[in-house]
Amino acid sequence: MSALLGIFGGTFDPVHNAHLRVALDIAEAGRLEELRLIPCHIPPHKATPSVDARQRMALLRLAVRDEPLFRVDDRELRRDGPSYTADTLRSLRAEFPDRHLCLLIGTDSFHGLPGWSRWRELAEHAHLVVMQRPNHGVEMPGELEQWLQGRQARGWDELHRQAAGLVLFQQVAQLEISATDLRERAARGGSLRYLVPDAVWEHIRTNGLYR
Question: CA 89 to CA 87: how far, in whole Å?
């Protein structure tokens, strides 16, 4: 049974309590040794965030500073060009050849995998853990459903035993917090208190971010 290293990437624009709660759900359910949160530098499938990557990383560091299981990883910020997940997993696999990796991904993103660059390569380096919220059902594309055949894990023990290549569907807490809504609230002078960690809100307020 090998240790599992979790990877949770995203723009985190800004990081909020739903990001952190689902990450902790996964870390506890999978008995992860560590979970790395990796802020995206240049998102391939989204508009470039209005707040630069360094500021988003600073917010992320503030958000997780009291959780020993979490670590902020800046490898995508140190790379030029779009932040492709396949490149990130390849670099992590090279750095941690003896550890099993699991990539955390939301249901919507999982269903959109066929549109990602080199998406089939992801399972060569890591397991995929699909974070499912209760009562959140979306039809899976046929290409993805076919690819999933023979890959679906029945539990976390399989991920601990096998180095990569499996897909596990894991239910997580349902917290309806939208980063888009948070940016809009901040832009009109609203408070983000109780939606983001206190230290994150204080940094946003003090530095006038998203205004």
Answer: 6
